[in-house]
Specification:
Chain lengths: 159, 159
DNA sequence: TAGAACCCTGGAGTGCACTCTAAGCAAGCG
DNA sequence: CGCTTGCTTAGAGTGCACTCCAGGGTTCTA
């Protein structure tokens, strides 16, 4: 099952509003092919095959290409999209909202503005969350500092 | 389940290791009293009364003081603790882990080191999460920039 | 002293994001 | 040829963090 880790830079180069290629590199993309089995994609993304099928079922991925026997064959564009979805997932964005964005993409040009607004709202959320986390970090620093200080003091001589 | 350990007035011995008062001001604390009803605490914390009772049930709060008729009377120390829990919640820490920390506190001085380690591990997680979010932010910036650019220069004819 | 508004408990229910099951098809191999 | 492995589907199950309910007691206000 181990694939070669030869990263051969793929990058779909459509000049328009395509399904989203991330700025830098999204994933340790394997070879330069363009048809991956579900287990390969599972390995690359860290998602389970179950989850990948479920993503398609709920519309978080548009219908994935199939082999002549009906097996899924994911493309590099699919991997790009999954990379982006992975980022959004880290922000805590509900899956339903990501599905909404995916639908907007499928609906075409007339959803351009709505997509942009959705991304901007997401960005605001991310900034807020970063601020919250930094606040939390300060609290943790304070407490850990306290523990460190108390350790120097007479009490509980630990191992 | 958590029973015994009746105590839990306003707090533990140790010159230092108390139930945790955050560095600055944790919440818009109301008046200077020290006995709040559950609905007051719900209002201050943003948590529901249901959730507050549930927190106590699972041991995320040590047994809350009661009025002579059995109604909960939260103290300022409880509010401090809830403020800290709120911070931890923002980090995505599982409730079970917070319960673990609460248990360590109740167990007393000999858990000092374990508590410190838990906080340090949490801090590492928070730093990691902040880094991830900043990464995500970069992707969002890139995409939004793209949308902004495409808007100025309308091309993109396909469906 | 009534009625509204609040609080109590144990336990059941909800929503989300998976995660797994069952039953079956398809390809590679000794 | 049968075995193993990997894939397919619809649908059921899981774990988490709440969230609510039923059936009662309490407290505040008029």
């Amino acid at each position: 099952m181990t694939e070669t880790m030869t990263v051969t830079e793929t990058q779909t180069t459509s000049a328009g509003v395509d399904t989203c290629a991330s700025a830098p590199r999204p994933h340790p993309r394997p070879e330069g092919q363009d048809r991956y089995t579900i287990s390969e994609v599972a390995a690359f993304t860290g998602l389970s095959a179950h989850t990948l099928r479920w993503y398609e079922r709920i519309g978080l991925m548009s219908h994935v290409d199939r082999s002549h026997t009906g097996q899924r064959r994911f493309t590099n564009a699919d991997l790009d999209w999954l990379g982006f979805v992975g980022k959004l997932r880290l922000t805590g964005m509900p899956v339903a909202d990501m599905v909404r964005y995916a639908e907007l993409l499928r609906e075409g040009d007339h959803t351009f503005d709505e997509r942009k607004e959705l991304l901007e709202a997401t960005r605001r959320d991310v900034r807020t969350r970063i601020a919250e986390l930094q606040d939390t970090l300060a609290v943790l620093d304070y407490k850990i500092e306290f523990y460190a200080g108390a350790q120097r003091a007479p009490e509980r001589p630990s191992a």
